[in-house]
Amino acid sequence: MTDATSDPSASPRELVMRVMPMPADANGNGDIFGGWIMAQVDLAGSVLPLRISRGRVATVAVNEFIFKQPVSVGDLLSFYARVVRIGRTSITVHVEVEAERNPADPQLVKVTQANLTYVAIDRDGKPRPFNTP
Ligand SMILES: CC(C)(COP(=O)(O)OP(=O)(O)OC[C@H]1O[C@@H](n2cnc3c(N)ncnc32)[C@H](O)[C@@H]1OP(=O)(O)O)[C@@H](O)C(=O)NCCC(=O)NCCS
């Protein structure tokens, strides 16, 4: 097991995805479904593990998921990820989601954060040490 850096919190975050939720993604209150946000975070979180492992990955665990603020239709969501731990076959990433809202009076709001772990897998879906095709 090796940490991504000697101080993982110092690892730079990277913009990995942007998306704008639509009315079909909202619940009866007009807020965006938590499950929709979780799916987007799972996708965004996989970007760095896919790149680092150079192959397929599977989500093995969601270690933390916090909805800090509601998300609304029309918010422009930016997903930032950074690697916090690299193991033998697994990579854990921290994902932060920021919403850009209200174009007339622009605001940037941190809405969600999560930690997810991905495992590099081979053709049979078994864990694969990194850099093994
Ligand atoms: C991912 C999967 C292939 C791992 O298989 P496994 O036999 O459990 O693998 P292992 O026990 O050897 O663990 C593999 C790595 O995952 C890590 N891991 C396993 N369970 C974990 C957990 N709950 N939290 C964090 N890491 C975990 C291990 O520490 C290990 O990391 P390392 O090699 O870097 O030390 C298997 O669990 C699987 O197919 N799960 C379903 C994945 C999936 O379909 N995800 C989509 C959502 S349904």
Automatic annotation (TrEMBL):
Keywords: Hydrolase. One of its GO terms (molecular function) is fatty acyl-CoA hydrolase activity. It is an enzyme of class 3 (hydrolase). The keyword Hydrolase applies. The keyword Chloroplast does not apply. Gene3D superfamilies: Hotdog Thioesterase. CDD domains: BFIT_BACH (cd03442). It comes from the Bacteria. InterPro entries: Cytosol_ACT, HOTDOG_ACOT, HotDog_dom_sf, Thioestr_dom. Residues 11-124 form the HotDog ACOT-type domain. Signal peptide: none annotated. PANTHER family: ACYL COENZYME A THIOESTER HYDROLASE, ACYL-COA THIOESTER HYDROLASE YCIA. Belongs to the acyl coenzyme A hydrolase family. This is Acyl-CoA thioesterase. It comes from Roseateles agri.
